[in-house]
From TrEMBL:
Record key words, sorted: Cell membrane, Membrane, Transmembrane, Transmembrane helix
Protein source organism: Splendidivirga corallicola
Lineage: Bacteria, Pseudomonadati, Bacteroidota, Cytophagia, Cytophagales
Pfam family, one: FtsX
ABC3 transporter permease C-terminal domain span: 364-477, 744-856
Record localization: Cell membrane
Membrane-topology descriptor: Multi-pass membrane protein
Listed InterPro entries: ABC3_permease_C (IPR003838), MacB_PCD (IPR025857), Macrolide_Exporter_MacB (IPR050250), Permease_put_prefix (IPR047699)
Record field: transmembrane: 96-117, 358-380, 413-435, 447-474, 501-520, 743-764, 784-804, 824-846
PANTHER family xref list: ABC-TYPE MACROLIDE FAMILY EXPORT SYSTEM PERMEASE COMPONENT 2, MEMBRANE COMPONENT OF TRANSPORTER-RELATED
Protein name (record): ABC transporter permease
Domain MacB-like periplasmic core positions: 97-317
Length: 863
């Protein structure tokens, strides 16, 4: 048997002398340090060295502080904490890896969500006058409902600047998203480019901070024939941005404009993206109706003078519109422009949210994911407490104060958090391109002041949150109990707390699983529900050039192209809004302000989209007077209260006869109820061509269309979109929420199971001898598995019972925002619970089988 070394008598005497007197002699410090280093270098520590090692290890920083400054004490304590943390990580490898994976995964999710949330919160806030920049909006009464619109009257901008002294500047805009404004063709010599533009007032660049590279913001839009283009468009047209002021650009191969300015590329965090702007005065010449107070259409923005009370101004604004339009029942108000992107949903005149709801949702998800990772750390740290209890007891015996112990354990946690941060940053860099594909943005990881501060704050919070409970818990252990090896009643209470945290983890995970299931089924419902028309394999493109003048000939030739099933033209994309209240019928209540959606279409439009005729007939070239006819949907007939509508007359742009009724169809998102809708024919007013392609021959048809279009309409680019993709964009937020929810729910489950795995492994390790004895006495592997997994199964079942009613409440609240939605079936919730239980059982069983298969002899052998 090898000889065991004891502590040198001289050194032990000096230590005891110091311990009794409460001070440490200077000459002893060197001896302690040397012996401390000797113990570190030993490959295996002898049992009788263990307690002395802890004494010297933790004695040094706290004893030497009596003879050194506070700064030095802190430095020593910090170095000491790093050293002890490193040794703890090495000693408890499994716990360290579980915590590292959990925290780094949680921080990766939090950082990705932070980048998205930060981008969302900063949309439209880059304008220099952001704090004084407002958009004119209006509340309009329709029967029992109040409709809130962004559109207002064209003359509003000029009248505000003239009549309201609080207004510093205004601008009217015919926005890029208007029907027919999707893409224009700009040409320079033989080069033609598709670009998005809008008509804006002359003070556009004084109101908005779209920086001009060339041109004077006071002058660039004074001339009606001026055009201001982006630097990117300039590069496409001229291959340079220098020396192009005054050069000519041909618009739609019809009109010539001279370049009066070049602006910087519109920032990615602008809610409006455009490539060029033209004068709003020019638009008035094209569309005279925008100068009428009774019309609605343009957007108007205003900059108020500093110090203006917005509430008082809005009260005054209502009276202002009545002075301009005596019969108006409209109630205009100003809304901060930068809030429009996030706070855009109104119900009956009351703001009820908007995209901010998704910002809040994913912020909460990020918090919960990090919280779940922190809970893992807390659970594994407190579960490991018995291993470190003697260490804590020795420290307290030799004089360590509680705050010093808290600092040490909190330091371990914060160090773990920052190690996780390093891994998380690498993960973010790797996953960011895929994340951008899901969210439809171009986020970048740029380490500016805001990002560094926010990431540091998130990580520090994570470290403190994860380490606070273990630090206060471990530092509160009584030395007498730890040295005796007994478990105090308070420590037993911590076991229940640990179970509670596990239950809480799985409650959150189950809620996320239910959420993913409900969102997935609702999106599936939206995608598969019949719209009332066939949107598959239908493309549309703008009416331009020669097509505008020879529509019937063009459509006739298009129908001959192989793979084309049918074609027509329209001024309505079957999404969006083009409503009117200016319709009359026999027996109409004068107070009735029902809104009707109106679509100007061509012959064969109803057939091209496969809209079903309920009664009457469709438009036909066999009749010479179809411009005096109209076709309504069922909702419109019901709103008008007509029992036998065919042949009845309505008043809309003259007298029109109802010749047909079509079955209801969806032209808005599923958030909206079906609205009254009618079709009319107005030759020359169509701005889009819709083409139905034969299934299986789409590529052939598209190639033929492109060749024919470029030959028939030279100089114009064949630029098309699919109608079903256009429809999907109405539910873009839901689609992205569904995709993100799946990933983050999976991450939450992964982190929860990691923690459960660690606790099971620790439990199995603590009960090693019990397992050995049970196996010797004849217990089977599966009986031991059942024994070890029973408590964890009960915790997960408890979590299921708690989570299901909570998840039902949240799922129902989300679905209530849809006018057409799925029914919440019981199996959504039971299925989520079963999934969580199976995942947890798999995790627990995997580890317990490993423990149960250990050789009984090895289990009973002393360490």
């Amino acid at each position: 048997m090898k000889e065991q070394k004891n502590i040198p008598p001289k050194l032990a005497d000096r230590f005891l002398s110091w311990f009794c007197k409460g001070e440490l002699l200077e000459e002893v410090q060197g001896d302690l340090y040397e012996y401390y280093e000797e113990l570190i270098e030993r490959s295996k520590w002898k049992r009788n060295f263990l307690y002395w090692f802890h004494v010297f290890n933790f004695l040094r920083p706290f004893a030497i502080k009596k003879s050194r400054s506070n700064n030095t004490n802190f430095t020593i304590m910090f170095r000491h904490t790093l050293l002890i943390s490193f040794r703890s990580f090495i000693r408890y490898k499994s716990s360290f890896l579980i915590n590292l994976v959990g925290l780094s995964t949680g921080l990766t999710s939090a950082l990705l969500i932070y980048l998205w949330v930060y981008d969302e919160l900063n949309v439209d806030k880059f304008h220099e006058k952001n704090d004084r920049l407002y958009q004119v909006m209006e509340h309009i009464q329709f029967n029992e409902d109040i409709l809130t619109l962004k559109e207002t009257s064209g003359p509003m901008a000029e009248a505000m600047i003239e009549k309201l002294p609080e207004v510093e500047n205004t601008v009217a805009v015919a926005p890029a998203h208007w029907p027919g404004f999707d893409n224009f063709t700009l040409s320079v010599e033989e080069k033609s480019i598709k670009a998005t533009g809008q008509y804006v007032g002359k003070d556009f660049f004084k109101v908005f901070s779209y920086g001009l590279i060339y041109g004077n913001k006071d002058q660039v839009l004074v001339d009606k024939n001026a055009i201001v283009i982006s630097e990117e468009l300039a590069m496409k047209l001229f291959d340079t941005i220098d020396g192009i002021i005054g050069k000519t650009v041909v618009f739609q191969h019809e009109e010539q404009y001279f370049i009066s300015g070049v602006f910087k590329q519109v920032p990615a965090n602008s809610s409006v993206q455009f490539d060029f702007v033209l004068s709003f005065e020019r638009y008035k010449d094209i569309k005279p109706w925008v100068a009428d107070w009774s019309s609605l259409g343009p957007l108007v923005y205003a900059v108020l003078k500093e110090g203006t009370d917005i509430t008082a101004f809005n009260d005054k604004f209502v009276e202002f519109i009545r002075d301009m339009d005596k019969e108006s029942t409209r109630k205009p108000f100003l809304k901060a422009y930068s809030k429009g992107y996030l706070f855009g949903n109104y119900e009956n005149g009351v703001l009820v949210g908007g995209r901010i709801e998704y910002v809040r949702l994913f912020s909460i998800i990020a918090f919960f994911i990090v919280l779940i990772a922190c809970i893992n750390f807390m659970n594994l740290s407190t579960a490991r407490a018995s291993r470190r209890s003697k260490e804590i007891g020795i420290k307290k015996v030799v004089g360590s104060r509680r705050m010093e112990l808290i600092f040490q354990h909190m330091g371990e946690s914060v160090l773990m958090a920052f190690l996780s941060l390093l891994i998380a940053v690498v993960f973010v860099i790797i996953t960011l391109p895929y994340f951008n594909q899901i969210i439809g943005k171009e986020l970048t990881l740029v380490f500016n002041y805001n990002l560094i501060f926010s990431v540091f704050a998130i990580t520090l919070f994570t470290g403190i949150a994860a380490g606070s409970y273990p630090a206060f818990y471990l530092s509160g252990i009584r030395p007498i109990n730890t040295l005796k090896g007994t478990l105090s009643p308070s420590m037993k209470g911590r076991v229940w707390a640990r179970k509670g945290l596990v239950i809480f983890q799985f409650v959150l995970s189950i809620i996320l699983i239910v959420g993913v299931g409900v969102v997935y089924k609702q999106i599936e419902f939206i995608q598969n529900k019949h719209m009332g028309y066939d949107r598959d394999n239908i493309i549309y493109f703008n009416v331009e050039g020669r097509v505008k003048e020879t529509m019937e000939t063009f459509l006739s030739e298009v129908k001959k192209i192989p793979g084309v099933h049918n074609a027509s033209s329209t001024a309505h994309r079957m999404i969006g809004k083009n409503w009117t209240v200016g319709i009359g019928w026999e027996g109409k209540n004068p107070e009735d302000n029902t809104r009707f959606e109106v679509a100007v279409v061509n012959y064969d439009f109803i057939e091209t989209l496969g809209i079903e005729i309920k009664e009457g007939r469709s438009f036909s070239r066999d009749f010479a007077t179809e411009t005096t006819k109209a076709i309504f949907n069922e909702a419109a007939i019901e709103a008008m209260g007509l029992s036998d509508p065919i042949g009845k007359k309505i008043d809309f742009m003259g007298k029109k006869e109802i010749i047909g009724v079509v079955k209801n169809f969806h032209f808005e998102s599923f958030h909206e109820k079906l609205k009254p809708f009618f079709f009319i024919i107005e030759p020359g007013s169509e701005n889009k061509v819709m083409v139905k392609l034969e299934a299986g021959r789409e590529m052939e048809a598209l190639a033929g269309l492109e060749n024919f279009y470029e030959t028939y309409n030279p100089g114009f680019i064949f630029d098309y979109e699919f109608l079903d993709e256009d429809f999907q964009r109405q539910h873009e937020s839901e689609l992205r929420v569904g995709a993100l929810s799946r990933y983050f729910a999976g991450i939450a489950i992964l982190i929860s199971c990691l923690g459960l795995f660690g606790l099971v492994a620790f439990t199995a390790e603590r009960r090693t001898k019990e397992i050995g004895i049970r196996k010797i006495l004849g217990s089977s592997i599966w009986s031991i598995v059942y024994l070890l997994s029973g408590n964890f199964t009960k915790m997960v079942l408890t979590a299921i019972i708690i989570a299901l009613p909570i998840s039902y409440f949240f799922a129902k609240s989300w679905l209530d925002d849809f006018a057409y939605r799925i029914n919440l079936a019981w199996w959504f919730f039971v299925g989520a619970g079963v999934i969580a239980l199976l995942i947890a059982l798999f995790t627990v069983t995997l580890q317990t089988i490993k423990a149960a298969n250990v050789n009984p002899v090895q289990c009973l052998r002393d360490e």
